[in-house]
Design brief:
This protein is of the alpha+beta class. It contains 8 helices and 6 strands, in the order αβαααααβββββαα. The chain has one domain: Tgt2/MlaC (Nuclear Transport Factor 2, Chain: A, Roll), CATH 3.10.450. α2 runs antiparallel to α4, α5 packs across α7 and α6 runs parallel beside α8. It starts with a helix and ends with a helix.
Length: 228
């Protein structure tokens, strides 16, 4: 049986979905791992989002996200909408959905009005929440191996490698793209490459064609409808 990650990746690639998820840090210089089934309790403070280390930001977001999912499996099974609440509270604060949306718009970004831009970003954000919620609903018990932390001085965009390991299933290789905001200095994720496929680039190629043919208003409404 394929792992939940493998199923989710297949679904995301087929639907050209943007996604960006979880990372980690290791101060020892060696790879670190997290058994998501026994992740520590949620860190209530949002101070980690102000960290100057992208590794800290994503590791903390990952720990919070999966520990809450693990602790609420029965409730989620009974009330699936709870997964969206968890994604909203634990994952989305670490996602640069605005920047990702602008990257998806590409050449169309400067051609649309401020209001159209805001509407598209809002629709994309809701779409991402729905997508993440569906993928994470298949979560069972996986191990995540994070690459050792590397120097980030002088860099504003970096890729962080991780591996998703599940007994009896192929190892999944991912690279999360992290971006540092020039004004705040904070790091957030905006894209993920899965086995060499950038989901941001895939979504950009898909929507750019639709925008050219159908217009930004139509595409925004379509995204909003899919997010429900």
């Amino acid at each position: 049986m394929r792992s939940f990650i493998k199923k989710s990746i297949l679904a995301l690639v087929l639907s050209s979905t943007i996604t960006s998820e979880v990372m980690a840090t290791s101060s020892t210089g060696s790879a670190s791992s997290v058994d998501l089934s026994i992740a520590s309790a949620t860190v209530n403070s949002a101070h980690y989002l102000e960290s100057t280390s992208p590794y800290v930001v994503l590791k903390t977001a990952a720990t919070n996200l999966f520990s809450r999912i693990a602790a609420n499996q029965q409730a989620i099974a009974k009330f699936p909408h709870l997964m969206r609440d968890i994604v909203e509270e634990e994952l989305m604060p670490a996602i640069d959905y605005r920047y990702a949306s602008y990257r998806v718009l590409g050449k169309h970004l400067k051609k649309i009005s401020t209001q159209q831009r805001a509407d598209f970003v809002a629709a994309m954000r809701h779409y991402l929440v729905r997508t993440y919620s569906i993928a994470l609903s298949k979560y069972t018990n996986q191990q995540v191996i994070f690459e050792p932390e590397k120097p980030t001085k002088g860099k504003r965009i970096i890729g962080i490698k991780i591996q998703i390991i599940e007994l009896g299933a192929p190892t999944i290789n991912l690279v999360f793209q992290m971006r540092q905001n020039k004004k705040t200095g904070h790091w957030k994720a905006f894209d993920i490459t899965i086995e060499g496929i950038s989901l941001l680039s895939t979504k950009q190629a898909e929507l750019n064609k639709k925008i050219a043919k159908q217009g930004i208003a139509h595409v925004t409404l379509e995204l909003a409808a899919l997010a429900k």
